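Q: Got a minute? One more chain.
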Amino acid sequence: VAVEAQASGLPCVFSDGMSEETKINSNVCFVPLNETADFWAEKTEEMKKLGRITDQTALQTAGYDLSAVNQAQTELLEYFYN
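A: Always. Here it is, folded:
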């Protein structure tokens, strides 16, 4: 879900319990679970102001763009999902 949200350009506020590997682009921040609801709301509002950011290069670099993978990987994925 984290990757999908970023791929669609949504600003994301994640728990700091999530792996830093989930961060694909700059439209992400991590907040400790023990923070107050008001703090979470403030961070969410801050991130909303950034708007959607679509960074195709970041997705490709992270390996989430099928057009950027080689033919063998594409065939493997097609086989797996069929």
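A: The helical segments are 2-7, 37-50, 56-61, 71-81.
Q: Perfect, thanks.
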